[in-house]
Amino acid sequence: MQSFQKYNVSEFLKDRHPYLDPPFTSNIDPTQVTLAVFFRKIPKLAACLEFENLPFHLRTDALHTLNELVSHQETKDTMIQIGILKSCAELLISESPNVRKEAALLIGGLVTLMQGRSLLIDSEVFPPLQDKLVDSETSVRTAVAWTLKRILISRDGVDRIVETGTVPTMVKAFIKYANAPKRENKDYLIELLEGFVNVSQYDNGIEPMLGTGLTKCLIGFLTFGNSLDEVDRINQLTLNVISNMSANHNGKSEACEGMAIEAVGRFLKKKATNEQRKLAASVIMSVSIALDGKYHAVRCNNEGIPVILKRLYSLLLTSVKDIRDNAKQCFLNIAELPEGYDKSVIILSKNIPILDEVFGTHCIKSLARLLPKLSSYKNPPNIDSNELPMYQRCIKSLRFLIDKYEQAVNEAIDTVNISQKLGPFLAESSGVSEDAAHLLKKITSKCSHNKEILRVFIATIADSDIKRNLVRFPGLV
């Protein structure tokens, strides 16, 4: 009889699977199963994209599923490694708008990684993106604009967009749909504007935007865009692009030609958002560096009021530092024009501490220059009552600055015949006789020439009102 041996099969996992480490459990870790499925899922879905006869709706589903998985960096990396960018570039020319849209969105999801952006040119993504930026389907071109914006978030992305000549295509697309904006194109235009904000942060990004008519279009869009929803956001983005472009030398010229300062002036008002006010001031700050920009800034309306300067002054009254800094620099730029200096001083003299903050002692000569020469009086020494409020502000400002800064009196002395200009204001009717006398004492104590001019003025020109009031100021003459 043949012998036989009975074997007992172990029921323990450590005997059946010696490679497993304790502790052992009968519970299955669901995350391990999920990861195993996902690791196989991405290559399978990627393979589906390349099936020639796959129905459009199934191809769309595959792309949509991949878009849902693209939120994790690991899955993005896997997709990039297996060449999904190349597949998406080919699908951008699909006959199905849904396939084109999902393909564009998937590219936009992958370009947040450096690995993805580095393969954009080799994967030949840009030609179909440029072509579909003016796709007949709004959803497709919006997705393409969103993708380009995502590429432009990084510096190397800007370089690739510029290198491939995509910026002019974006500009043409924007001009095409912005000149007569429709509500259905709102999101599309916003995506393009956000892309322009990113690309215009760099000189090599600005250059392809110049000479295209974009600046003129953007300035007009500040008005046309009011017909769209989210108008505040649209205006803010538009102002941001104009501000960035006008930082470039040629960009300033285009902004001047397009009357940018007048166009952005309404965003200096209180009803505009703080961000809009800051950006509007930034545009004026950049454009007013150019000579034509200075002239535009000091231009008066039909009532003779320099509107831009008055609105810039209102910005100096806010507590927002960035807004105040921009407005202050605007005044400093505009003041390089003599007319701009005088008009700025007239407006800022309404608030002497702000005048001091912006110009300091540099405005002494301008304040003195604004006082009338004796030869300009119709009936000397009687002061023109229409101009008296402005003259009063100038004299009070002069007193404040000369009292605060020791060297300021020397600036005043350099003004020709300053004591003769101040003489008529010794009359009590001027409302600033005490201030005028205080200034004259300081000036004549340091300058014998002005002391002699004042003596001659009182002896030959001063009327009874002035002479009677001199009793209040002993030692003046």
TrEMBL record:
It comes from the Eukaryota. InterPro entries: Adeno_fibre (IPR000931), ARM-like (IPR011989), ARM-type_fold (IPR016024), RSP14 (IPR042856). One of its GO terms (biological process) is cell adhesion. PANTHER family: RADIAL SPOKE HEAD 14 HOMOLOG, RTDR1. This is Condensin complex subunit 1 C-terminal domain-containing protein. It comes from Stentor coeruleus.
